[in-house]
Amino acid sequence: MHIVDVRATTVTVPLEAPLRHSNGAHWGRFVRTVVEVEADNGLIGLGEMGGGGQSAEEAVRGLREYLVGHDPARTEALRFMLANPTASLYNNRTQLLAAIEFACLDLQGQHLGVPVHELLGGKVRDRVPFASYLFFRYPAADGTGEVRTPEQLVEQARELKARRGFTVHKLKGGVFPPEYELECYRALAEAFPGDRLRHDPNGALSVEDGIRFARAIEDLDNDYLEDPTYGMNGLRRVRERTTIPIATNTVVVNFEQLAANVRDPAVDVVLLDTTFWGGIRPCIRAAGVCETFQLGVAVHSSGELGIQLATMLHLGAVVPNLSFAADAHYHHLTGDVVTGGPLAYRDGAIDVPAAPGLGVTLDRDKLAEYAELYRELGSYPYDRDPGRPGWYPLLPNGSWADPAAAGPVDLAS
């Protein structure tokens, strides 16, 4: 089996409502690029990456001369063909490598008639648990879906718990002043006794504010405090002054950083992202290092459609030391590009796909529909807040959003 072609299609899939975060917002939709790798036996492997538009599609097309004729089973060779650690300093291909790796693993599984987790050592669990992943949200165009107050946040969590069965709740913060987000977080704890909690201000807090926040929630049932401040030394200072485990998805995203954290610990839990780390296989290797040094492991979400979600499920299936519920933006979407629509949650978990390859196939009609929607709406500036024109975040941040301001409704453009 050899690769004969590679294609990319950028899509926009609507969200229930715009999601706010420390750096800006998802403006009511996700922009993702679907990658297809075709083999000479007619099989097509699927990949996915963040962002999109002409630049992403051109970047994928630019890999064609590297990939045509390559055996997709040689996934270790892909690492150096596409993202040699010195050469890639000049072309930053980690996300591209991940999307191609997904597709090559999908091809191998289809060709052999086995799910991807069988290629990765075999599953140790049939289902992967997920956290609710709560966001402060602007209202949707019809005025619904706003999450700004503690009451609205609790109601969002209550609705998700009723529909999806979540018993772990993660709040994406770094939007409002720390004392206000502390009020919101404690409201969650009060509303859901017995459930687990985690807070993620995306590195927006100063070290001192991070320490104060950590100490103010030490009495709660916390899984961990994720990226309270930015930088390994800052996280180490927070960690030294709290009993809560510290987690990251920002400063341990490659093996050099992982080695530095083992040598001089700054975080207790590493959130592994199949895109940020360059594929499923590097995440499994990193999980093995974490197992050796008794670091916690969780699966991170960088904003997925069903293809990348499948990679997260296969990763979660084979990692024995996955000791925390995974993250996913997935339940905020109103649709998907995979056949059968969005994958189903049951009791707060999603079944690991059992079909050959990644276990998902493209719904060509939906792909075309969402590609057309992308052409109509275009991209949006992820690192800007539509409700605060001219604002941009500093690290640490000190210019917080006003909890009393409802913000814009029409974010179509």
UniProtKB/TrEMBL annotation:
Residues 150-245 form the Mandelate racemase/muconate lactonizing enzyme C-terminal domain. Its EC number is 4.2.1.40. It catalyses: D-glucarate = 5-dehydro-4-deoxy-D-glucarate + H2O. InterPro entries: DgoD-like (IPR034593), Enolase-like_C_sf (IPR036849), Enolase-like_N (IPR029017), Enolase_C-like (IPR029065), Mandelate_racemase_C (IPR013342), Mandelate_racemase_N_dom (IPR013341). GO terms for molecular function: glucarate dehydratase activity. It comes from the Bacteria. Pathway: Carbohydrate acid metabolism; D-glucarate degradation; 2,5-dioxopentanoate from D-glucarate: step 1/2. This is glucarate dehydratase. It comes from Jiangella asiatica. The lineage of its organism: Bacteria, Bacillati, Actinomycetota, Actinomycetes, Jiangellales.
